[in-house]
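Long-time lurker, finally posting.

We've been working with Ribosome-associated translation inhibitor RaiA (Parasutterella muris) and I want a structural starting point before designing mutants. I don't trust myself to interpret raw outputs, so I'm hoping someone here can both generate the structure tokens and explain anything notable. Sequence follows.
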Amino acid sequence: MKLPLQVSFHGIDRSEALENLIAKEVEGLHKFDADLISCRVAIESEGRHQNQGRECSVRVALNAPGHEFIMNTKNEDAHAAVRAAFDSLARQVKDNAAKRRGN
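Top reply, 14 upvotes:
Generated this for you. Predicted structure of Ribosome-associated translation inhibitor RaiA:
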């Protein structure tokens, strides 16, 4: 079953490459816990920072039975921010699935 996924872009152009990366990452999370319900991802370009380029903020809200995982990351590279958010979520999802199974 395909996990419902909602991706939104704010202050940044829609990117098919980012959407594909997010879909791949969500599919990976679904392998750890087949009971995941939905995932919402918001990608926002924040203003320029002193001595830096535009920072990208990524917020992921992942719903599982009885639990909502929320991860926020920032990076100048949107792809890196997405990967960092999903890496952290993967650890949380694995731990939660193990607890539910009683491991």
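Before you design anything, note these points.
Residues 78-101 form the longest helix (24 residues).
The CA atoms of residues 23 and 91 lie 18 Å apart.
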